């Protein structure tokens, strides 16, 4: 229980921010939403109505939001990636603690500056690295600290992004390098890099990166394919069909905001006909999606780690194998197995129960709860501070041959 009710402001009201706001809505004794900002008036109105906010607490202009809003304890920043740095600097200048979506910034110096400002002001910046709060990954971290398993020798961690997430977010959606100025690996896997560093330490000596294939090159489009799935003769036999994803299966449609009195089906049809989400994947020339990217880290401690991003997969889970001196720890997000090299009986830990929880097994809620309780109690330690997140960001930038 917190000692006082924490005042929350939020800028950027997309899917991630709304998950954190769900926690606020469910825990009114811990926190209350006092102000919001988003350039999309439909999103703004939806959150305004859900929380019963007055018009003078809702803004479409960041300038007006930061100059007008007062008496805030925590600002949630869920804007597009390219605005994270500027929004964070302005929030800290206002004296607000920050819950910041990943990636924290797009340049190494910007990441370092955020960490420096947090230290200088005494304000907390919690970076939303969800894996550090997920019970499955917390258990995996715990196992690596057991003396009987011995020290870590190597780690291989595979992020299977999945067809649906890849096409919705990184091909049709706005998280393309052209729009965000953030690579797919950086945007999707910076918290996977952080997880590996959480296991092994931050003493990175070298970073190598290898990219393979471009699955949606226009030259690979089926002959006769239309620019939009809804009017394409190939749609019924296409594994990347937007009609199948959104209309038949009704997946990934939470971000589709209906017009007043518009039925869900009509909203989807409108999005398929008019929005970016109805485009043929081979018509999305601004994507930097690849079949696979492998990033290899060599540590000063001689640990070797591989982080692999596989995009065009039927599954959308993570596979991890940790080679220790006396055992091998492996997991697929459902089960963790410890196989001892001396012949002792295997250990197995079942995490299938987390699959039905949603919100990354409630890790999204744990992230914001951690910051709320820290601010309320005066505690300054966070599981993912800006200072902790800097190295993983630098690794991602180096993996994309970016100055770091």
Structure description:
The structure is a single chain. The model has no long low-confidence stretch (mean pLDDT 95). This protein has 3 domains: 6-129 and 363-384, NAD(P)-binding Rossmann-like Domain (Rossmann fold), CATH 3.40.50.720; 135-216 and 287-357, Dihydrodipicolinate Reductase, domain 2 (2-Layer Sandwich), CATH 3.30.360; 223-282, no CATH class. The strands form 2 sheets. An 8-stranded mixed sheet has the order 8-9-10-7-11-12-13-14, covered by helices on one side. Strands 3-2-1-4-5-6 form a 6-stranded parallel sheet, with helices on both faces. The protein is of the alpha/beta class and 404 residues long. Helix 2 links the parallel strand 2 and strand 3. The chain is globular, with a radius of gyration of 22 Å. 35% of the residues lie in helices and 20% in strands.
Q: What average pLDDT do the residues reach? A: 95
The top-level CATH class of the largest domain is Alpha Beta
Number of individual domains: 3
Low-confidence stretches: none
Which architecture name of the largest domain does CATH use?
Answer: 2-Layer Sandwich
Give the strand tally: 14
Report the sheet-strand fraction: 15-25%
Shape: globular
In helices, the fraction of residues equals 25-40%
Chain oligomer state: single chain
Main sheet specs = 8 strands, mixed
Distance between the termini: 41 Å
Secondary-structure element order, as H and E?
EHEHEHEHEHEHEHHHEHHEEEEEEHH
> Which structural category fits the helices and strands?
alpha/beta
